[in-house]
Amino acid sequence: MPIRSLDREILGQVCATCGAVHAIPIRYASVKARRGPYALAPDDTLDVVIDGRRHVVRFEQLDVARRAQGTQSAVACVDVAGKQMVEIGAAMSVDGDALRISSGTAGYGRSLVRVIGGSAQAKLGFDGHVHRPLCIGAARGRGAAKRIAPDTIALPACPECGSCESLVRTWDQCPAAYARSFLAQHRRAVNALATHLEATGFALSPSSPRGLSVRAGAAPPDIDPRYPEKRLVLSVPQPIQAAR
User: Fold this and answer.
1) Residue 23: which of 8, 32, 35, 13 has the closest Cα?
2) What digits encode the pLDDT tens for the residues 62-92?
3) Which of 97, 125, 129, 102 is nearest to 116 (CA)?
4) In whole angstroms, what separates CA 168 from the centre of its chain?
5) Where do the structural domains in the chain lie, given as residue ranges?
6) Phi and psi at residue 89, in whole multiples of 5°?
7) Model's pTM, two decimal places?
8) Which residues are paired to 203 by β-bridges?
9) What single DSSP character describes residue 26?
């Protein structure tokens, strides 16, 4: 299961395919590189779009570029380019042993990050997709067949294996026999996140495919009432056993 922890700012996810651990910002758009080491050169650049504006980030210091080929790859990149990101209203941080670029603007309709080129793009493993904050409601299909799945939260693709995972809000009641299982714990957390995203405007709707529309409806019966006031940490999954 993908959720490991959850608070107002960060969703902790474990990739179900490769086991990579990700700390995904909830209110801010972000994109994560693959794990290092990164074979960067001191003249490498990264061409990025942050909140609709294009910028070029430069990796200029030779000593740090050499470090970026070793075990401190992501830290070295932050040392070189972190200040540049702050100056353009963004942030560069370390997520595990990988690099993450985040917008400094909150809000689904305003926050956007996209890496569109530069000699460092392939070396860092950044995709060229548009990244926005998490939202409830995922677009499926194209053209006239495009639809919004109103109960789905699409997670960013894993930069390590490319796996695309989703969280799905549920409206049924978990059987009492499994009330203490990881399955029940996970669905309560997903439903709490979905309700929070919807209530704060991080939602897509069929009538407004670019978002910012709250879908009316009651809260799911299975929901963790502690969130978002309390940080949730999910226990290690155990085999599901029905109560006797």
Assistant:
1) 13
2) 566 667 666 678 888 888 888 999 999 999 9
3) 129
4) 15
5) 27-124, 135-228
6) 80, 30
7) 0.87
8) 136
9) S
